[in-house]
Amino acid sequence: MHYPEIDARLFLTDRNTHLLDEHIDVAVRVGSLPDSALVAVNVGWVRLVTCASPGYLTDRGTPATPEELTGHACIAFEGLTSTRAWNFPAGKLENPVQIRPRLVTNTAESAVDTAAFGLGVTRVLSYQAAAALSDGKLKLVLEAFEPPPLPISLVHAGQLPVPLKLRAFFDFARPRLQARLSAL
């Protein structure tokens, strides 16, 4: 054990937390960060991917454009995107495509599992689908229409000087997160 004197509390949520109010020293945030007093350390990038099982694509066809999703069963992960429309880039604008959710879920894991079972097309972050994609349970679709990658950052409340336990956590976590994200 590298740091036997440090105890941790792991709090998993898809919502942005208020670090000071919730007594959280550090958080992992996905996406662009609003201007704030928080200090962010970038650890990598993640893609917003659209995927389905090979069996589903064989049975229903592979969508060639985002608009073709209107004819597909979709599995919407409500913690990430709208459950009624998925936005795809169209130049500098966004192209909202209305979807027909066969299932709306609040976890990426259930969205990925349901898609892997062949029940529809889902849209999640690349790290959330990485194992199913690697195992061949899911295939990427509409890659040419993906939005730009999203940054992943470790954020903290910006105390100066940075407390030693926080610096130790960053020194421990940052290279591991960077290695894991670069392998995706």
From TrEMBL:
Gene Ontology biological process terms in this record: DNA-templated transcription
A family per Pfam: LysR_substrate
Region forming the signal peptide: none
The entry's keywords: Plasmid
Stretches of the chain forming a coiled coil according to its record: none
A GO MF label: DNA-binding transcription factor activity
The LysR substrate-binding domain, residue ranges: 2-177
Family membership noted in the UniProt record: Belongs to the LysR transcriptional regulatory family.
Identification of the protein by name: LysR family transcriptional regulator
